[in-house]
Amino acid sequence: MTGGFMTSAGRLSLFAAASLLMLGGTSAGAADLGGNCCADLEERIAELEATTARKGNRKVSLQIGGQVNQAVLFWDDGFESNAGVYTNDASRSRFRFRGDAKINSDLKAGYLLEIGVRSANSKRFNQDDHSGTGLGMDLRHSTWYIDSKSYGRVWMGLTGGASEGITEINLAGTGDVAKFSDAEDMGGDLALRRADGFYSNGALTAAGALSIRRLIRGGSGNQPGEGRRYDMVRYDTPEIFGFTGTVNWGADDTWEMGLRYKGELGGFKLAAGIAYGESSENGGVVGFECTSNVTIAATGKDAKCNQLGGSASVMHVATGLYANFAAGYMEDEQIQFNPRFAGQNVDDRQEFWALEAGIQQKWFPLGKTTLFGQYYDHTGGASDQAFGDGGRLLSSNLDIYSLGIMQDIDAAAMKLYAIYRHVEADATSTTGTQLNFEDVDMFMTGAVIKF
Predict the structure, then answer these.
(1) CB atoms inside a 10 Å sphere around CB 29
(2) What residue stretch is flagged as signal peptide (predicted)?
(3) How far apart, in whole angstroms, are the C-alpha atoms of residue 55 and residue 176?
């Protein structure tokens, strides 16, 4: 018995010792593993901190966003054809910083800083300059605001006013790839050719010749009735039954006021807006552009122009069928005093209207597909643009037809697109020269990805 007990006890002792050794080894291994794990975790945290945007304080939020929009554009002006890769200026590449901070239950303060980026400009290249002007980075927004749930929002700084985007309202979102009411964004600086292949300046070089955009709004290319961004003070009303109002003032002097609506009724999504503005700014394009605001300064008079613009968009929710319509005008009341037009009783009005219709449906798992067609019509009065024959632009007509497809890639916040555009134009000079220009055809395909 004793021998058996001792044998059993010995065995138990050996088992206990082995267990302790195993437990000790396991603990040591676990400690080593834990040390390696924590070191790796600390390294990853340090890497994350190094690549994360830092805020200057904990009170104001910071959001970073933007997009990249690049495309291949093919063109044919009737005598020459070519292609290039461009930043699509319908909605160019950009990055932004925005945020806000709560002041109390009713008030908050916020900011918006946005930078545009162009590697090559889809609206400023021509037959002799395949990259175009306005490259690199430009400041789009630099503004702060105070927002009240009860009384609305006040902005101060560089931003858009009541007329900004007022002729571009579009529930289908095709404005990211081809705006139906802003024709200059796609090949707008291509010079127009006469039937003999020469440009309006009688030469084979585009400098000093009329281009597509030079027939729009007296040469600026911006559609009549549409606003632009400039330094301003702006006030937005609170939303009331889907309506919001905006008034703003800035530059020296430009003021605008507008009304917008967005809602849904009887299975239809609706969005619309209208805005009116006046400007007396001499020189440059601060505020919205008067046709003769540069040359009129030499006469000792202030520029004086007014504009009205608006648009509407409606979409049937069940079928995805939709339509957009836009129209606007700009009148330059001082163009009669421009020395180049004095005593000629020239037309002081630039006007346009545009239409887009299409269908948007999710036929594929990737995302919604949009098929659309566009028409744009611009009638221009007198403008300070050089015709190229020694005269100035007396009148012009521009007709543009477009067909397009846009495919959303939901998983990548991306849109693929392809657009065909056909341009017809004619113009008359103060010398009496009348020209029916050669038609221009363009095809653009690319993608925009948002972040």
Answers:
(1) 10
(2) 1-30
(3) 30
The answer to whether residues 140 and 94 touch, using CB atoms and an 8 Å cutoff, is yes
pLDDT of residue 28: 42
For 346-381, how does the pLDDT look when each residue is reduced to its tens digit (9 = 90+)? 899 999 999 999 999 999 999 999 999 999 999 999
Q: How far apart are CA 343 and CA 73, in angstroms?
A: 44
Q: Which residues contact 251 (CB under 8 A, 6 or more apart)?
A: 230, 231, 232, 279, 281, 286, 287
DSSP 8-state secondary structure symbol assigned to residue 223:
P
| Total residues found in the chain within this entry | 451
Show the low-confidence residues of the chain (pLDDT under 50).
1-34, 294
pLDDT score at 111: 98
What pLDDT sits at residue 23?
38
Provide the token pair at 230.
């400039």
DSSP 27: H
One-letter amino acid of 116:
G
- State the pLDDT at residue 37: 59
Cα(160)–Cα(123) distance, rounded to whole angstroms?
20
Tell me the C-alpha to C-alpha distance, in Å, between residue 376 and each of 44, 214, 216, 424: 55, 15, 11, 10
Domains with residue ranges and CATH for the chain? 68-450 (2.40.160.10)
Q: Side chain identity at 77, as an amino acid letter?
A: D
What does the pLDDT look like over 106-140, one tens digit per residue?
999 999 999 999 999 999 999 999 988 888 999 99
Phi/psi at 18 (5° precision): -65, -40
Name the amino acid, one letter, at 397.
N
